[in-house]
Design brief:
Layout: H1 2-9, H2 15-22, H3 26-38, H4 51-60, H5 62-65, E1 70-79, E2 96-99, E3 105-110, H6 117-123, H7 125-139, H8 142-156
Parallel strand pairs: 2-3
Antiparallel strand pairs: 1-2, 1-3
Helix pairs in contact: 2-3, 4-8, 6-7, 7-8
């Protein structure tokens, strides 16, 4: 999903640029784009996201395809409702973090969408906010998911369905 978010931000981005921003290998970025093309989220033969399809998948499918694995309290990078730029926009019942040595937040641990996600989020505020909104869709209640969808529509420039 991080590849899709980054392609929504930078359509047609080169694989090397995707890899650098997302803290992935170039081959991982290439495989990610290929999977997104097969799923119909990226236009065939291009590196351009179908924004409406992406938002539809995130809202209705991400919590099933990337089921949230919550664990014990830990130190890490704040995500979901507690992420920078999102704090105060949701009625949060407690912080959620991606365990990471550079993180200074405390909260219930959540396995990130991919291993490089926390490091990529620390380096890029837009990506951090976008991944955190996806996590709201993964762990949030109905009202929080509705709010996250509205924010994602703004973030990605998608038209509501």
């Amino acid at each position: 999903m991080a590849v899709a978010l980054q392609l929504a931000r930078a359509p047609g981005a080169r694989y090397a640029d995707l890899a650098r921003v997302l803290h992935l290998g170039v081959a991982e970025a290439h495989r990610g784009v290929r999977r997104l093309q097969l799923a119909g989220l990226v236009m065939p033969g291009e590196r351009r996201v179908d924004r409406q399809a992406l938002v539809e998948f995130l809202v209705h499918g991400v919590r099933y395809a990337f089921a949230p694995l919550l664990g014990a309290e830990a130190s890490g990078v704040a995500t979901a409702e507690a992420a920078p730029g999102l704090a105060g926009k949701f009625q949060a019942e407690g912080g959620v973090v991606w365990p990471h040595p550079e993180g200074k937040a405390r909260g219930r641990s959540l396995v990130p969408l991919y291993r490089g996600g926390p490091a990529a989020a620390v380096a890029d505020a837009w990506l951090h906010r976008s991944l955190a909104l996806v996590d709201v869709l993964r762990v949030g209640g109905l009202q929080q998911r509705r709010q996250a969808r509205a924010l994602l529509d703004e973030e990605l420039g998608a038209r509501p369905a």
